Each structure stands twice: as C-alpha cells, then as structure tokens.
Amino acid sequence: MSKMTTPITPNSKWDLSSWTIFYFSTTFILLIVYYLLTYFTSPLRRYPGPLLAGFTNLWRVYYIRQKKFHLVTEELHKKYGPVVRIGPNVLDVDYPELMKVVFGVKGEWKKTGSVLASSTLVGGKIALNLFSQTDPEIHAKWKRPVAKYYSANAVASLEGHVDRTLNGFLEEIEKRFLKEKGEWSEGVDLGKWLGFYTWDSIGALTFSENLGYLSTGRDFDGTLLTAQKSMDYFCTCYGLPILDRLLDKNPFAVFRKFGPPGFGPIAMRTIKRIMARVEGKDKDFHSADQPDYLDKFLEAKKLNPEVVDDNVLFGYLMNNMVAGSDTTANVLRATIYHGLKDGKRVWNKLSEEVLHKFRAAGNGPVDYKAARGLEYLHAVIKEALRASSPVALGLERYVPKGGVTLPGEHGWFVPEGAILAFNPWVMNHNKMVFGEDADKFRPERWLKGDGETQKQYERRLVMMNNYDFTFGGGSRSCIGKHIAFMQLYKVLATLVLMYDLELLDPEREWQVYNRLFITQEGLEVRMKRRM
Ligand code: HEM
Predict the structure, then answer these.
(1) Taking a C-beta distance cutoff of 8 angstroms, is the pair 83, 414 a contact?
(2) 117, 233 in Cβ contact below 8 A?
(3) Is the confidence at residue 1, as pLDDT, over 50?
C-alpha cells in the first residue's frame, strides 16, 4: 500500500510562531551583517581597543552604566596607549598637545549629539540650551548676550548671595551637630550637607530663592534624587544618543514617557520662578538691590530680543541649576576627603595658613578676594579639581573637513566625521604633564618644589595650567568656572577657619560614581568648633 503524504499548505506550516521565528532570525542575521560591515569597512579599524567596542556603542553604554567609565578608560589607555577605540566611530585620546587644536575658539570641531539628552521637552519641542546646542553659530549667538555675567568681576558682585547661603549652612551645622567648643561631634555626613549647600546656593544665585535643602536637612521634594536619576539617564544616552529619541524626545513622549525622569521638576521650578519675577510676585525674597542671574538674563532678553526668546532664557536658567551644583559639591568633598586622609597632612597645613590669615576676623564666611590670596588653599583647590575632575566622560568632537593626523610615532590619520573624545579625568591624570605621581592627591605639585629653580617651576606650572582640562576648552569651555571658584575658596576657607575635622573612619574608602559628573558617597566626619 502506497503511503499517503500530507500536502504542504502555507497555512499549516507558516503559523504565527513560524513567522515570529522567521522575523527574529532575519533581524538577527541582518544585525550581524550590519555589525560586521561596520567593523570591517570602518576607517577606524586599525585603532586598538576592546573588540566589542569596534562593533557597537552598546559596549560603551554597558560600562558607562557601571558608573566607573573614567577608570575603565584609564585602564584602556594603560593597556593600549594614548588612543583607544571606544565605539565604532569614537576614539578616546590622551594627547594633551591636541587639545588646543580641537578645543579652539573658532569651534570648527563640532560637539556631537551625545549631549542632546540634557535638553528638556517643553510643550512637545526639544528646548536646547547652551550646553546641548551643537550648532556653533547658534551657540555663539546664545552665548554672546550672557557671557559678561559670568566674568570674574560679575561673579564677585554676587558674593552676597553666597554669604547668605553659607551663613544658613553654618547655622544648620551648629544647631544640629556641634557641641561645646573643643568637643568632637558625633558622625556628620558632611558630603550630603555640602550637596544641600551647593543646591541652595545655586538657587540663591539664580533666583534669590532659598530652595530649602539646608533648612529641612533633606531632599524634601526629591529634586536631588531626580537630578541624579536624570544624570544616570543622560549618561546612558551619552553613549547611544538614539536612545533618547526612542525613550523621550519623540511626539509620543507627550502622552507617555518611557525614559527615566528628565530634568522635569527642576524645569517646573524654573518656569514658576520666571513667572513670579515677571509678575512681581517674588518680592518677599528677591530685592532689586541684590540682582541675581534671573535679573541678568531678563536684561539680556530685553537688550537682545531677536536672540533671547523664552526658550533661550529658560535654557540659561536650566544650565545654572543643572551644571552649577553637583560639580561644585564634588570638588568641595574631594578637598576635604583627601585633605583629611593621610593623617590629616594636607588639612593641618591648610589650617595653619587659613587660621593665620583669618583668625583675627572671627567666625563667619571669609572674604573671597582675601581667600584667593592664600597660596596653599589655591594649591589644594587646583589639586582637587585635577585629581577629582568633576566631568569624567569624554568630551566628544567631530573631526572636521580634511581630517586630522594624530601626534605620536605612528602619525595615524583620522578622517572627517569620526569622533575624538577627551576625558577630563583621563587628561588630568596624564603623567607626562602632572608627574609620575599624578594618581596621588598632592597639592604641592602646584607649588615650587624643593631643589627646583624658579625657572623650572614656572615652566612646569605653565605646562600644567595649559593642559589642565577640568573646565574643558575653547568656545565651549565652562561658562560657570568663576562661580565654582568663588564657592570653593569661600566654603573651604570658612570651614577650615571655624572647625577642626577628622574622618569618622580614616581607614574606610569612600564610594565614587561617574554620572558624567563625579559623585561621591561616604564623606563622614566628626567636627569640632575652633572658636
Ligand atoms: C567645579 C565646577 C565645574 C566644572 C569642573 C565644570 C566643568 C565643565 C566642563 C568640562 C564643560 C565643557 C563641556 C563640554 O565641552 O562639553 C562645562 C561646560 C559648561 N558649564 Fe561647567 N563646570 C563647573 C561648574 C559650573 C557652574 C557653577 C556652572 C553654572 C552656574 C556651569 C555651567 C556650564 C555651562 C552652561 C556649560 C556649557 C558651556 C558652553 O557650551 O558654552 N559649570 N563645564
């Protein structure tokens, strides 16, 4: 008897699960082909680096999400040398001599889209800001009306706002933790309080508003946590900007947001403050005698109506709030933590200098100009900015037309359109510039060494200053650096003047996380009044 065969029909064989398998396996194969083509046809394939990084940016995203990317990058440079491929189209470079070429004032080396996730959606539209604007012409147009408000003199005129917040900080510390003169307090999470201080302080400088983190002693409205989550989100998208389009910056995001929080709560607060100022409803805490950044930006809007519209004004304010607090808190923490380590060597030396200068003036915020004149304080701050660079992911720039030849023995060429990344953390640990002990916190490197002639010292100092990449470089360098300096000198000198400090557990290491901005946890100290 002949065997009966079942006829093959599309319906019986190609049911839903078959189509699903077909769909996924085809996508998978296409992806593999895409990645192989990307890898083998890339002009960057000759550059050393982890194999996976040459195939996909997901490699970078994975390590960025571990929050230790500055250390990963450092290790890669140790292994591969000054140029490392960290993405299919991205090279991380540790060539100080290239900085002046790439970060020139003309802005020929354009910023990449890695920063777009730091923008906010306002009414369904992406509101770019000074930091996230990648078009050099628009950036220059936006920067011009406000640059003068960030000059050293303009910032010094705002010292009253800083004094007010610093007094609030001292009051809270005294009230909550301190005992009689000469008696050590219990443990104080000083790192957390410095975070409250820098947020309240940037709120005062920007809106004259007391945000209330110091007075409540907590992140009462969740803004600080949200800012941290926003930075985590921003970092993830930094390595793969398309993610931000998928998760946040798309028309559907108005109805349903898939990404972690954007800078929404800070944005809402900013909009409220603008409205209140324009309607004259914030007179209980804002005085025309003591202008703040909102006053200055409104002035810029009045003088340059064709450039500064409501969105640009909003961007200026957001930049202050987002870039101006955690960065500064990080450096303050680093000065104190490293100063107290190593048997308080640096702290004791600093105390001697500060007490000698300011003891006669008594308690309270020290004068900024006077603090700037202190040599060792200056060295400690420069060293903390270097050794704990607050911005610690690569600042990315597109190679412009004509490409670039890298320094070094190979003379390798990088074509137009590729991306070079300069990580301030990595650059600031370069041993050729900062010495063999660049991994150590040693403020003395900024001072004349024993056995060093004045000429040798000056040459070394010029080199370190030229290649110090803490605040970036060129037309896109940090606009707020004088604000940061004012905070650092005043807060550190005032704390040293008024209190003696010791680490709660001198043996314990603190935790350092990289969320583009370095954040630290575990600066727990005991404090004692000096006067
Ligand atoms: C120690 C503190 C700070 C450090 C280390 C720091 C570092 C940096 C760096 C490295 C950049 C360049 C980013 C790039 O090229 O992509 C930058 C840009 C910027 N920073 Fe800061 N910053 C600090 C404090 C501040 C403060 C206090 C403010 C404002 C109140 C501020 C506002 C900005 C803005 C608006 C930009 C973008 C500038 C532009 O593209 O024109 N920063 N900062």
Answers:
(1) no
(2) yes
(3) no
Strand pairing of 511-515 and 120-122?
A: unpaired
* Bridge partners (DSSP) listed for residue 520: 512
Tokens 């300011």, residue located: 358
For the Cβ of 257 lying below 6 angstroms from any atom of ligand 1, the answer is no
pLDDT digits (tens, 9 = 90+) for 236-249: 999 999 888 888 87
With beta carbons less than 8 A apart as the criterion, state whether 299 and 146 touch.
no
Supply the Cα-derived Rg of the chain in whole angstroms. 26
Distance CA(142)–CA(134), nearest Å, equals: 12
Cα separation, 160 vs 214, in Å, equals 17
Structure tokens at 426: 């990595």
**Does 237 count as an annotated binding residue?**
no
pTM of the model: 0.92
pLDDT tens-digit readout, 349-408 = 999 999 999 999 999 999 999 999 999 999 999 999 999 999 999 999 999 999 999 998
Residue nearest to atom 21 of ligand 1 (CA): 478
**CA of 408 relative to ligand 1 center, distance in Å:** 30
- 392 CB under 6 A from ligand 1? no
Structure tokens at 123: 């009414």
Cβ of 479 less than 6 Å from ligand 1: yes
Residues 419, 399 contacting (CB under 8 angstroms): yes
H runs (alpha helix) in 208-262 = 213-216, 223-239, 242-247
Nearest to 263 by CA among 196, 201, 183, 321: 321
Which one, of 82, 111, 93, 90, lies nearest residue 42 by Cα?
90
The helices-and-strands tally (H runs, E runs) of the chain is 23, 13
> Can you read off the two tokens belonging to residue 497?
């003047």
Q: Give the whole-angstrom CA distance, residue 426 versus residue 432.
A: 12
Q: Is the dihedral of CA 60, 63, 66, 67 positive or negative?
A: negative
Residue 47 to residue 80: CA distance in whole angstroms: 9
- For residue 290, pLDDT over 50 is answered with yes
Which secondary-structure segment (H or E) carries 508? Answer: none
Angle between helices 136-147 and 310-323 (to 10 degrees): 80
Residue 518's nearest CA partner among 417, 345, 387 is: 387
Is the CB of residue 315 below 6 angstroms from any atom belonging to ligand 1? no
Q: How many residues does the chain have?
A: 531
Give yes or no for residue 394 CB within 6 A of ligand 1: no
Alpha helices in 85-222 (DSSP H): 99-102, 136-147, 152-156, 159-177, 190-207, 213-216
Select from 112, 128, 478 the residue to mutate for testing ligand 1; criterion: most ligand atoms less than 8 Å from CB: 478
* Per-residue confidence (pLDDT) for residue 263, from 0 to 100: 65
130 pocket-lining for ligand 1 (C-beta < 6 Å): yes
Q: Nearest-CA neighbor of 228 among 515, 16, 526?
A: 515
Tokens encoding 401: 């037309």
Helices 326-358 and 481-498 meet at what angle, rounded to 10?
Answer: 50
Return the pLDDT at 2: 46
pLDDT, residue 255, reads: 59
